[in-house]
Amino acid sequence: MDAAISSQFVTVCGLTFDYDSGRAVDDVSFEIARGTVTALVGPNGAGKTTLLRCLAGLEQPVAGTIAIDGVDVLESPRDAHRKLGFLQDFFGVYDALSVERNLLYAAASLGIAPDRLGDAVVQAGRAVGLADRLKQPAGELSRGLRQRLAIARSLIHAPQLLLLDEPAAGLDPEARSELSGLIRALAASGMTLIVSSHILSELEQYSTHMLAMRDGKTMGPHPLGAAAQGRRRLKVAIAGPTLTARQFLESQTGVSAIAEEPDGLGFDFAGDDDARRRLLRAMMEADIAVSAFTEAGADLERLYMAGGRS
To answer: Which of 19, 72, 153, 272 could serve as a FRET partner for 117 with CA atoms 20 to 30 Å apart?
Structure first.
């Protein structure tokens, strides 16, 4: 696979990485398109962190190639680092320094020109919602705000790709919700993201694709159709034949991807809770024998539990 002619933003081919204890990444190949948010999921020990560290140019695999926007990560890691940011699962900030000085240090270490340091700090602070806390010591920040500061350091050089390894670990529900909003905002700005997490329900909120990893091997990336397009999967249980119900659903606005399910039908639905109630009422008024009307498992969760196969 020639990274130079690939239409994909991230291209991985035949990647293999070994520890003394065994193989962590086993002949992995995949491509990730520009502007997508890919959920990297899998059990503990699957190789997710090792894969991210290889993508970031922090580990040397025994075989394979990695290209980011046509730049060979293994041959030209410094050039690749200009295109990517990486937040590791265990990160630290300089507690005695202000938010501003934390960002200034990160910017200088990444080679940003002295006359651009101030603008870089302001832009990174604004991107993560810390513009009003630049003078505050990092040690006074909450866990969620420290996470934002760590992400800001990863963004200080305006990378095109952001790698996040378990970014929601240790955050309370409010901070996790704010983090999800931040990731959605970064994605809306055109950034490409790969996010590793065990919290599937939150990945579902912003991910467009899923890359599953088990025993060092990957499956995907698979598009998350319903989630990526603001739809959700519903299931209606029917007492009797489903033909009439299918014909009715085919005539309804916002209904797509109808499929046979055990005891009924599954379908994607583009509508809020009120629209969902109206749909159920209309089915009952059409004398369709509905015995249950529920939301199916999340698109990402269903794919993951199916072993990463669409």
So the answer is: 72
